[in-house]
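Subgroup meeting minutes
Present: P.N., E.W., G.H.
Scribe: E.W.

1. P.N. recapped why we're keeping a running log of single-chain structure predictions: easier to compare across weeks, and new members can see raw inputs and outputs side by side.
2. G.H. added today's entry (185 aa).
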Amino acid sequence: MGEQRARLEAGEWYLDDAELQSLRRDCWRRLDRFNAAGADDDDVRHKVLHELLGEVGSGVEVVPRFQCSYGYNISLGDRAFVNANAFFTDDAPIRVGADVRIGPGAQLVTALHPIDDPDQRREGWEQALPIEIGSNAWLGTGVTVGAGVRIGADSVIGAGSVVLSDVPDRVVAAGTPARVIREVG
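Output recorded in log:
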């Protein structure tokens, strides 16, 4: 493992390099196979998901077109459902619990760029923090989840929301940035 990948996986600031680019290309090749599979090619998509992702629980469904950065950092729990046009920038681990529903066009983004140092940003420095989605959570259409965020079990995130901080268990949160609106049930 090269220096930049080690820094990435340690949650430190890192620069893109040939090793990371190669890992992304390998991921994109698998994604091409997944997304090109025909409507009746569930077996092909299922096989590619198991090659691509770090963990795929039983009964998982991912609707094409799906995109991610590396794949191996993604864990989908039993019966998780990811709708069309989802994009996971899995520079850090993304853990999706059992029975989670993710709406179309959702983005789970683990990568950060320097805010206070324009020179570092220009040089391409990045950092990645993990995302965790608790079991039975529901992310509506077009939800964006930022780096380092945990969404609690049984919570609902309203369509179009941008989640930049943790959301507790059993609440409804919505808005930009998302805020807790009420408890569930």
